[in-house]
Specification:
The structure is a homotetramer. By secondary structure, the first copy, chain A, is mostly helical. Chain A starts with a helix and ends with a helix. Chains A and B meet through helix 7, helix 8, helix 9 and helix 10 of A and helix 1, helix 7, helix 8, helix 9 and helix 10 of B. Chain B binds a DNA duplex through helix 1, helix 2 and helix 3.
Chain lengths: 243, 243, 243, 243
DNA sequence: CATGAATGAGCCTTCATTCAT
DNA sequence: TATGAATGAAGGCTCATTCAT
């Protein structure tokens, strides 16, 4: 019994080891740069061994993506607990997004692989479910806040917009700006010097625009965000330590 | 003289033929799925011939991306001419985005390859410049409208936000929603049933939130957008016919 | 234990098999004529297998060259043990050169690839060292004999000539004549009918010219050489059998 | 008539232009590095045009080699006229060799291509004859001197050695040392620091060893060679100017 | 005679995956 | 379960040569 569980622990550890080796390669050299040969030789295990842990390369990639999504989820969960009003909690999640973008750049990059059709199709349904659950949980957290706001009458949804669709707008603007920031060769050349701040202003405008109480001017919003960001820092490290 | 230009026409046509063959492959099977062998055998030309037209695979991909970006640019240019007030013209560009997303899905996908580092790095500076110009022109069109609005006092920018950064917000929310719509395995499962409409509402909220005159309620906004979309349709076809 | 070593033996044997297939191709058709495709299809192994044994084509070539250089080295080592006086031992090495030229023509050709810059540059340092060691060992053997002669006062070096530079002269004349013999389209047409004998005479003249005792007339020299050549024959075969 | 000869002149000039472009490429990047594409684009002519001047790549290479051989021949011819006694004239040709090695390194490299089997086989008989003639002429010059010495009784050939075979020894030692110097990765590491001087000493030893009158000690030989080298300099430049 | 696009066989190399040990 | 050699299809790319204009 003990024997078996030790073996299982070793196995799990090996799985983890594979991911630790694959991660930096995937981040810096992409899917093509990641090769089973390289992973195998960088660990001190044989190529065949890796196939005992992951049925194919794609699964390794998705496993890494899941890790990153889980990190985001945990951060979201902590962030959703901050603050009193729903609006502040909503802003806390915006801050979590910003935080994630700035401090977990690699994780943000890893998450993207989930969106690659070819990789997604080759992965096991089990892992696909993990991803769906994680994504669902994040959505739940945010839409839960929206629903709280609705119940508190701090917010009223426009006709034909669900709570989730409200969230989708914030998701889209944050996600889009992150991608553009990461991949646009020349944002500054286009006159966009501080994209992060711009997105803050847009988010504040959106929240106010939806008349989410209490309304805030940009300065107040910005101050609140700064406070939230500072509150997130120790939370983030405690998450990291748990891992 | 005629002789020469006929040869050149034939050459150009061949270049085009390559792109026509490569395009659906790239769209449906991605960069990996696209292979010179395949393109060559699908045309009735030798592999070497392709290399007389494109120095490498990446250039084919970028050439296709440029086509798509040019299409968007043309659509934007036409769209920017619609309507009287700056606000309506701004909405026209939003409509152009929506139109592009719905009717040029493939082009949207093709555009993304520009953001792939590896592909970008292997391409010629000439084509890189084409892309930068195209992107710059699109930005110019939109930020031009913003600047018009400012001059007409129909809009006032918040402190610390440039015209381009205002545009960036709209860019990000549109772009982000497009990507998420295209690649998220399960938007409806998350409760997002009509992402396009949701983004419309967000954009209206943003414009109103920035107090861009004339303010509009959602119904009016939606009607105006519907009109704009209809206006765009013939423009789009005239662009297509020019090609 | 036995298990492992059998695998290793099989592996080594496969490596060897590759070399056996590549060798005649390289000899008769040169570097260009040698292709991985050809080697692979001529063995009954997959192309990829070859790359498990040699990281690139160049390494195969150098591996063959090393084999030939080793053969020469062994012959030199045996030859250097023949005879009493240093002069006779020196002549023994000359005989070894002659022997190698006549009986290991292919090996002589293979050795030359070492001198190809492009090939050298692509090879592993490990093999480069093997080559340097082999060359160094040969030089050592010959210059050792020269030094012996100096110690025995059978020879006195001219001012400004080191032992190694004395050797260099013999190396050059032998090497040069071999290359010319191998590659000159028409030595007989130039009046050179017995280049090997000519070089013998030159070598004798040089040795006498440097006053390397005991001096010999051409006839004696020639007889001694004939004896040495006969002594080398069994040595050569024993080396061959060891392989 | 005039028309025709002008055309022919232009043609010849074009041939020359091709060689001028191909030469540095061949020297610095070898046979593989030389490509018709490159030559064509570096001149302002089409690839097909080159084929009007040379039936294949190999012929270009041999044409360049012939130029270099001709240069050597001319230098030999001038050198053979220097000095009174046959021995000095013989030394003059040795000096010419040395001169050629040091001042026409590129030409020495180009000459070698003649010895490449694959290239030789693909060349026209016409050019092969040119090469044979050139080589023959060089041999004639040197063996002529030997024959002069014999007639003057300044030299007596050993039994079984023809005049040409005597020359062959000198050819071999000079040629061999040149190749070794050019291609041995590490002559100094083997203790050979001044190969050129070493070969001088060997040549003197050989001449004296064959009792070629007037005998010379090394110092005298060296001085005479220095004088000869200086005499060759202006000759060389006059040849260069003629071209 | 010049042109230069088309050719297409051929090259070296990679790598995810399998499977006998 | 770990191993790692073998696989072999596939890939991107080159280039000497031809030939219609």
């Amino acid at each position: 019994m003990v024997e078996l569980s030790r073996k299982q622990r070793e196995l799990e550890q090996r799985t983890n080891e594979i991911l630790r080796v694959a991660r930096p390669i995937l981040i810096s050299e992409g899917f093509q740069g990641l090769s089973m040969d390289r992973v195998a030789s960088q660990m001190e295990y044989a190529k065949g061994t890796i196939y005992n842990h992951f049925p194919n390369k794609e699964e390794i990639v998705l496993a890494l993506a899941v890790e990153s999504m889980e990190l985001r989820r945990k951060l979201f969960e902590r962030a959703s607990g901050i603050g009193g009003t729903a609006r502040i909690r909503m802003m806390g999640l915006g801050a979590a997004c910003e935080f994630f973008t700035h401090h977990c750049t690699d994780d943000f990059v890893l998450e993207q692989w989930v969106r690659n059709q070819g990789i997604w199709d080759k992965s096991t349904e089990q892992r696909q479910n993990l991803i769906r659950q994680c994504e669902g949980r994040c959505m739940e957290l945010v839409s839960g806040i929206v629903r709280d706001a609705l119940m508190e009458h701090a917010l009223e949804l426009p006709d034909g917009l669900t709570a989730e669709e409200l969230v989708f707008g914030f998701w889209a603007i944050n996600y889009g700006s992150q991608i553009l920031t990461h991949t646009s060769p020349s944002l500054p050349a286009l006159g966009i010097n501080n994209p992060a701040n711009a997105i803050r202003i847009h988010c504040c405008t959106l929240l106010n625009g939806f008349r989410w109480q209490p309304l805030m001017d940009y300065a107040t919003y910005s101050n609140e965000m700064a406070v939230l960001m500072e509150t997130l820092t120790p939370m983030f490290w405690s998450i990291k330590n748990e891992q």
